[in-house]
Amino acid sequence: MLTAYMLRPMNLEIDKKWLIGGGIGAATLIVFAIVAWQVKSIDIPVISEGKSAAETPASEAEINELSNEFEEEEGEALETCLILWNGEGNAAARQTLAVMEASYASATFSAIYPDRCLVTAANPKWDLAAQFLEGELEGEAGEMFVSFSQLDGGSASTLDPSVTNWNLVVASEGQLWLKSEMEDPEF
Question: Alpha-carbon distance 136 to 133, whole Å?
Fold first, then answer.
């Protein structure tokens, strides 16, 4: 038998909350299903021991190949740097090295300007050091040159180790050559 209580309208407030909560839950499950399906369709190569290619260490041959490529590229860049250094437009910087009687020199690339050559020279006997940064191309057509600007001068003992690989030979007039290309330089 129906009672007055049973005929009373239901509390729709509770039903709406359940309906909204159920909808959000269903939407979340659908999103998770789509993401799981997408991830499952990605082909992740497994080399060995359950590791991906990115987690597998490089072989010694791969490391040597990359090292050789890097050394070749760096060597070519340093040779270009030295051609510019020894060029006609850079007499002032070379004169500075000659006057300070630099016995050590290195060419690297500036951490701040990675496309610019950085020359560091030192005379440990007098505790002197100087750094030069490759400048812009100057001059007129047919007579173009690059000069190096002196960045810093000071004590050789305070140089950052990253610029002291001393990979160059210094001539008495301030010219520079790669040590790797010199057997027994005669200046």
Answer: 10
